Amino acid sequence: MEDSKKIFVIFICLLVSSSGFCRNSCRKAVNQARSDFQHGNYSFHSEEVVPADNTYFYVLYKYYKINWYFTDSSNYYKCYDGEMNKLLQKKYGKKFLDRAQVICDSLDNTPDWRKNARFTGGDKALK
How do the domains of the chain map onto residue ranges? Predict the structure, then answer.
């Protein structure tokens, strides 16, 4: 019985210390997001998505200068992105992501909007 109490106490200590670490990590992420925002470095993070060639990423960068990075699924980036989103909403308006999605949908419904450039003289004229 004594050993099970020790194990329980150790478990509780680990649980409490890890929650403190998570709060501290989140605090660091929020501070980093604020610093990045002040320096004009806007970014969001996610695990890799398929397809990687995504119109939404293009629109976010073209219209809002927001980079998208693929990362692990840590709570750090959830905290970072949450703070960055709040700051960007203050700058661009609460519905800026909705507006980006509308632009994205419009581009996706436009035939060949991402096709390669063509030149009047063809490839020979480029040489």
Answer: 2-111
